[in-house]
Amino acid sequence: MRFERSHTRRAVALTAVGSLVLLVSACGGGDDGSSGSGSGSSGGALEGRGPITFATGKDTSGNLTNQVAAWNSQHPEEKVTVSELPESADQQRAQMIQNAQIKSDAFSVLNLDVVWTAEFAANRWVTQLPEDQFPDLGKLLPSTVDTAKYRDKLYAVPVTSDGGLLYYRKDLLDKAGVQPPKTWAEMKAACDKVKALPEAKSMSCYAGQYEKYEGLTVNFSEAVNGAGGVVVGDDGKPNVDTPEALEGLNFLVNGFKTGEIPKAAITYQEEPGRRAFQEGSLIFHRNWPYVYALASKTDGSSKIAGKFAVAPLPGLKGPGVSTLGGHNYAISEFAKNKATAADFIKFMSSEERQKANIEKTSQAPTWASLYEDATLNKQFPYLAPLKASIETAKSRPKVVKYGDVTTAIQEAAYGALSGTTPPKDALSQLQTKLSTLITQ
Amino acid sequence: MSTSAPVAERPAKPENNKPRRQTSFNEGTGRLAAMLLSPTLIVLVLVVVYPILSALRESLYQSGQRVDADGFIVQGSEFVGLDNFAAIFQGETADRFWNAFYNTTFFTVTCVVLETLLGVAMALVMHKAFKGRGIVRASILVPWAIPTVVSALLWKWIFQADGIANAILGTQVLWSTEGWQSVLSVIIADTWKTAPFIGLLVLAGLQTIPDEVYEAAKVDGANPWQTFTRITLPLVKPALLVAVLFRILDTLRIFDLPFVLVGPNKSSVETLSILAYLEANQTRYGPAAAYATLLFVYVALVAYMFVKVLGADVIGEARAKTPKNNKKSGGRRDNKLEPGAAAGAATGSVTAGGGGV
């Protein structure tokens, strides 16, 4: 009995010690990983060659493997491993931030949404890039390069872009004998004419994305910019409590009031809006280029295949202003082999790679001359309006606390659109709020 | 339990042998028990106590909120005392906090009441012997088996502007907009998902009630309602209380349903967990930890009150009865264990809530 008990006790002690050792070693492992990279934060100098990791959101296009394979076959000593993050932008950002906060070198090249540049740069999570090492920058669309800068310094290289387009029912507009509109007033007039047609009676005129999320910030900014206003001025100061901004906001508010924008549009993100357009219940629809391929499908999922076309967004007195989307590639401050990382970014943003990418995925390139390519234009008829859209597009505010800024914008816009706040009050409240958030 | 003498008698039988064996065990068992428990305790300290303390510490600090002249964030965190807590109760943030507090409480009360009613009804149905009972049991449990986020997406799809709910109702309710409709959608989805949980636990309770009790009631001429209120409910109460306690603690932490189904920044359905998440998402970990701590205190308080008020009742009932029935064996401990177990479960859930957020 006595022997047995002490035996048991020893076993228990062993188990306890064993579990502790396991735990400690697990923690120790984490420490090793983070402290090892502490020395790599010299900044600026892009040195070191070897294998790197590319952290990017889930690749829904399926083409990223080809792009990376093209690099890997040419650079067997500097292989790139793709680290796929979740599909949701919020979670991508969260994982990249967590990684940066423990100074881990697990991610070398980061695929950043254009609105994250300021936050990542200000926190020194990404390395400042010497512009002379990226000679091709001049061949990219200038508006896209601008999104990669923070306080006039380059922190990333734009690889894909995105701009809003006006999708319209070409069949109905032709039948009613109207041209695609350049202004909001023309769009309204076109709607009235189209709605006089018997088959368009129950249709709504227009919709974008008005659910309370990033898409609302995009659509609100487009309305304000399209009327000649700004949310945040070029000097970096918020200036949204203006008559121009009010006219822009009123375009949306009145749209909801008169029913030109369907009531359900207050719940639209990209996908519900696209479905409504594909179901044939919208005459005009603001969305991103990705819709083109889906709405053209002839497998029965789209009722409007071959019946629609795209144009640049309309504005108050002339062509509208799109909000700029897209992704930039940056180098993590804590990465090893930064020279390889820089080369990889140059490779991915090169004309050849961007062309290969748009051919497969229809993602908007940043390389300006690709928009003039005759074969591409044949394959993607929206390229010309898209170039016009991106060239004049405005960035969303470049602020460190972008998350707070976009929340404030959504709050104000949503209140005005759902009719709980008068537009004028919404804008003046937004101005106050932004002034406290943006102190530069 | 006091109504049923036979119930109390049955477990009393084997106890006659018990005391003798116990004394022989006593020497050294305490130490052995401590040894055996130590791995568990170490793990608990690491995964429960440490996160709580660390969150408490975090709530007293702030970092990354200032930008220097060159546009870079000033590194390092600074001790700010209770500033993070004070900020929650000032100005606009206070309105938002109390709104979230109200929503959390409202969801908890409404959902738990509905779920209890439905869950008990489900358990009664599942307990009855009839053809196809297996299928009914399985189908009732399906919602519980679905992860909350998935069920939130499912309901989001149902509640879309062009979704099934509107098609069936023949209306154009915009469920995800601010107002009663979004609150209702969350309540419906939560009740749908978790009423089976209560049903499951109550069913387990029902199955421990011996048939003789019901036969006796029948002989005495009790009608179904009397049988339900005088026999079923009192006997199933311990199981039901644990189930309700679990649900209360769970619902106080409600996050995924409103966040996914309706969306963030919607004041109608914003809860305390969402506030903590949003702060953390903006890399303001100090204020986030402060919100999480407040939620932790709230959950702990509710759990304590619940166990104190309803759990004490259980003890009282058990004590009043035990001397009468089990005088010889010096009172059974089993009855006392129930509230204890409930309290233990409560702390477990609470800490999970505090640590998880």
Automatic annotation (TrEMBL), chain A:
Ranges of biased composition (kind: Gly residues): 32-47
One Pfam family hit: SBP_bac_1
GO molecular function: maltose binding
Residue ranges, annotated region (Disordered): 32-61
Protein known as: ABC transporter substrate-binding protein
Gene Ontology biological-process entries: maltodextrin transmembrane transport; maltose transport
Family, as annotated: Belongs to the bacterial solute-binding protein 1 family.
Alphabetical keyword list: Signal, Transport
Family annotation (InterPro entries): SBP
Organism: Kribbella sindirgiensis
Signal peptide: 1-26
Gene Ontology CC: ATP-binding cassette (ABC) transporter complex, substrate-binding subunit-containing
